[in-house]
Amino acid sequence: MLTNDLLSQWDRESFLHPSTAAGAHARGETPARIIEGGQGVRIRDRDGRESLDGFAGLYCVNVGYGRPEIAEAIAEQARKLAYYHAYAGHGSEAAIELAHMVLDRAPDHMSKVYFGLSGSDANETNVKLIWYAMNATGRPAKKKIISRWRGYHGSGLMTGSLTGLELFHNAFDLPLNPILHTEAPYFYRRPDPAMSEEAFSTYCAEKLDALIRAEGADTVAAFIGEPILGTGGIVPPPAGYWEKIQAVLAEHDVLLIADEVVTGFGRLGSMFGSDHYGMKPDLITIAKGLTSAYAPLSGSILSQRLFEMVAKGTDDMGPLGHGWTYSAHPLCAAAGVANLKLIDELKIVENARDTGAVFQRLLHEAFDGHPIVGEVRGEGLMAAVEFVKDPGTRTFFDASEKVGARVAAAALERGLIARAMPQGDILGMAPPLCLTPAEAEEMVGIARAAADDVAKALG
Ligand code: PLP
């Protein structure tokens, strides 16, 4: 076995990590961690240090670490058929069974699943399918896609453009045309503190309506949104938001993409966030929870309405010129089938709802009224604590104080992984959905102690 020192040296010398300060990492100036194993909601590194994983990797290990059922399904598939492609009507038992299982769980009006490998490539597929559908139905000018500031939809060229976070645009020459952004449904940061949730939702819908009118409805094809904002700050929608947004979309014949990469398969205590918030999307993006990240797999679920547009296109123009070598990869599909079965057997969605309610209550008990906490928010097993300099006047900390990152570092010191979200001083938590109430209590206790450490240091 390689020694830790040698691995560390090779890591600094050879590995360009995603979302990492590349130069500082290569020079050995920033911490690095080599993860070796995991069980349930805990991971273990090569130095033998264990952490409670309060973010389920990147909110993806929904059934928890160390599930032999999924590992065995992958191994069995690898022995039988490691790979065959899905082009020109080919498939594997696992991929077909998984498509059927996904549709069984998705809202009733959904009709087909296209499989990719990551949330980013699934959203890339979504943009292409929508453009294709617009061309197929004689509307070649209707191509713009509207996303929200603070939305997160991936980090490819088109998907990084859909993402509404500065970090993912700066120095990459993004966003590209024809992607537009509208108001984030971020009630805590509403422009006027006197606004009610309903009034703020109306304000967001009016902003969207005005943008569509200014651009011309005949140029706007679709709107994309996460049922609850994720990487942009873990922000549940204000009351009435999706109802009002969907009314605007219907008026202008603009399609809806629900990006459920995080919320799909249980995170909010329901199978899909679309059901949770009464959304009726034309496309649903899935990834993470589809395999609980035991293998890379994503999907675009098409509504019957969208499928008919695409089918018209292929009837008129021939086969769809879109596909990846690894679309519907049998190993990943086998992981997906085993994962969805486990979600049912272990009643993971119900647990996310019930333990989620405990988790949210504990967070409120621990943080409401805390001297540097402005808001505690969340849904199911997805939550955030937002730190501010003065909760009374909603005065934010200067970004240079890095308060969110300091709380996350203090939590890690105490054995909890929680994520400093990229824009604002926000501690995000989204643990595996197999979390127990006792583990929820342990996580919240550590998060509170970490916030106290930082509040004390701030004086
Ligand atoms: N969409 C949402 C809502 C996400 O949270 C993410 C990743 O966190 C993505 C898309 C992109 O997924 P991936 O990182 O697998 O490309």
TrEMBL record:
It comes from the Bacteria. Keywords: Aminotransferase, Pyridoxal phosphate, Transferase. The lineage of its organism: Bacteria, Pseudomonadati, Pseudomonadota, Alphaproteobacteria, Rhodobacterales. Its cofactor is pyridoxal 5'-phosphate. Gene3D superfamilies: Aspartate Aminotransferase, domain 1, Type I PLP-dependent aspartate aminotransferase-like (Major domain). Belongs to the class-III pyridoxal-phosphate-dependent aminotransferase family. This is L-2,4-diaminobutyrate transaminase. GO terms for molecular function: pyridoxal phosphate binding; transaminase activity.
